[in-house]
Design a protein that fits this description.
Length: about 375
Amino acid sequence: MMLSFWEKASFTEYDYAVIGGGIVGLSTAAALAEIEPGKRILLIERGALPTGASTKNAGFACFGSLTELLADLRNMSEEEMLSLVELRWKGLLKLRERLGDEHIGYEPVGGYELIGEQELNSIDCLEEMNLKLFTLFKQKIFSLHNNKIKDFGFNREYSKALVFNCLEGMLHTGKMMRALWQYTAERGVHMITGCEVRELHEQQGKIAISCTTLSQSMQFNAAKVAVCTNAFACELFPELDVRPGRGQVLITEPLSRLPFRGAFHMDEGYYYFRNVGNRVLFGGGRNADFVGETTTQFEVTPLIMNLLEEKLRNIILPNTDFKIDMRWAGIMAFGPNKQPIVQPHLTLPQVFLGVRMGGMGVAIGAMIGDSLANLMLHK
């Protein structure tokens, strides 16, 4: 790309660069701007809107349902499980503190989990889980609200119990991302969209960021770079143990009557639904086709969409006519465990990684951003 003298002088040299304009990238840029307000900070996003899941998620402010946390205990220690819950809870508090509840559409409505026949034994562990979580929250988190199954209109043949989480909430994903975008811009972060990073390499003591935009090549330079592209980090660093996981979502047209309000989970968190006004937003089903959903393709598939519609018709809205208004997909990132990757790159020590959010980007994004910014400042 041919640059003018003015462009080269004003737009190519930075103290810090952040690659990825999702919740983690924006949170990292925000933290850097808060700590060092005089520094030049660049944020590069390859899409017109954030690519991945940040603007495509369901808008849950959650830290794990009962069956999800019990499943975690089968794969990790109690200390590790509690550490993840604490990270998620602190991340949600940080997000709300930074942006304000009104700017992210936060609603402290509580969350529910529908318990099917195959999960009924989880009820026996409810009080034990409350004891474990008491060390973090100093209050009882889970309780049974079986009387609301009928009030909410769910299929009683499936819904054998209903577990309530008093600290769960919902937010408006679009408002959250707009607020975070505006927050960073107000603090002087220079944001460029529609610009895809192709390569990072060391050059004269800095990191050269080779990009393409409008079919032209361009290079930015920064003393330190944060890579916050989650599932797409492997495009820059194929050696990373990061696997993409697609999440498919649908939303109904407004219903004349919707008997439930709040955030809901099913099947160890693999299915999730909520109201958006008088609409029902429903997503998940990745566990029905793990192989097929391990992809970075932004597509919806008949297999998952038919499954979502079937559960919506038979379990969530039985005897209710509805029409689907929109369908979409977001791309999350997973690994061999639920721990995110927050560390310097092994061979490029001026490059720092904040990836593999495990489907909990909304909950942990703000804390990961803070951790990554502090790591960049002190390494």
